[in-house]
Amino acid sequence: MLCSTPLLRAVNLCFSVKLLVLLTEAGQPEGSLNMWIDAHQARVLIGFEEDILIVSDGKMAPFTHDFRKAQQRMPAIPVNIQAINFTWQSTGQGLYFYEFQSLRSLDKDVMGDPTVNIPLRATVSNRPTVVQIGFPCLGSRDGVAAFEVTVLIMDVEGNVILRTPHNAIFFKTCQRAKCPGGCRNGGYCTERQVCECPDGFYGPHCEKALCAPRCLNGGLCVSPGLCICPPGYFGINCDKANCSTTCFNGGTCFHPAKCICSPGYEGDQCEYSKCRQPCRNGGKCTGKNKCKCLKGYQGDLCSKPVCEPGCGSHGSCIEPNKCECREGWHGRHCNKRYGPSLMNTLRSADFKHRQHTPLPKENVNSHIPPESNYIW
């Protein structure tokens, strides 16, 4: 859900979640502590209204773990986001204390120290409380300011429940120059009132990040070299599919529940052959009712043997390179004719053979030898 929105929405959401929920679990609290971004704030960040759960019963939401590893590569908060709101609440008998240990800008010529709308040290209310972190841009030029926000939450016994990582640095893009539309992502507005972009960004306002190789399968390039992949894909440029489907007959999974099939097969899992009748003599199906034959056979089903150079007009091919010749012809390719005398001899021998061969129903006494050319 988080990373299948358009580029700006994905950037806003990913950074806001990173800023607010990159928290380290240090124990299991008693009672309940919940933290979320409400639907109204979500509409500002991602364009549609839906509560985003961050902490539930003192446990981080599963999706937040991926952002911990990417903290150093998170994009800067965009120009149009001046503050981020989240809501927290302590329920049941749980009592929690919070402390903002650090609210510091590292580039005060671009942005002042971050602000909060609640005391820096107090207890988490039993009622839903909106906490707002503001980012006051200063100066008269565009730029990106680095800043720190460190929050600590403890239980009544002093055990640390949640804490932002030590030395976690975040970034805010400020637009104060005179370029029409402003320059983002650290772009500089020149005297000609055009944006000069830093490495990894391009576009009239430096609003587009450059990923090489480019993000595939609907992935979003949110910062130089960082693709956020839609559900079902992973990899540096979202080129790999997280498949739960088995592809048969040599198929390859390229999309969740979808396979690229080998020639001659079809279906979501490549389970169907395109040949209604199986290919014969070792042939393999390569298309609709089309087989790829082994050497020595041909035809759509590989049922026809091949004789090279052929059996001519006086024979027929019955096996690979084996001809059956018509009467009066012989030779490997049935191209040799018997002479007249030899033909008469063969016909005579064939006649006598048929004459002396007893019929199946003929009764012959066993003590009388059959007629033959031999002398008994």
What's a quick, concise take on this entry?
This protein is mainly beta. It is 12% helix and 32% strand.
Protein architecture, described:
It holds the Pfam family WIF. Disulfide bonds join 179-189, 197-206, 243-253, 261-270, 275-285, 293-302, 307-317, 325-334. Residues 35-174 form the WIF domain. This protein has 376 residues and is mainly beta. Among the domains are: 32-174, Sandwich (Immunoglobulin-like), CATH 2.60.40; 178-210, Ribbon (Laminin); 243-273, Laminin, CATH 2.10.25; 307-337, Laminin. Helix content is 12%, strand content 32%. The protein contains four helices and 31 strands. It has helices at residues 7-21, 39-46, 65-69, 340-356, and strands at 32-37, 52-56, 59-60, 83-91, 96-105, 115-116, 121-123, 129-134, 143-155, 160-163, 170-174, 188-189, 195-196, 201-202, 208-209, 220-223, 226-228, 233-234, 240-241, 252-255, 258-260, 265-266, 272-273, 284-287, 290-292, 297-298, 304-305, 315-319, 322-325, 329-330, 336-337. A six-stranded antiparallel sheet has the order 3-2-1-4-8-6. Strands 5, 7, 9, 10 and 11 form a five-stranded antiparallel sheet that branches. A two-stranded antiparallel sheet has the order 12-13. Strand 12 and strand 13 form a beta hairpin.
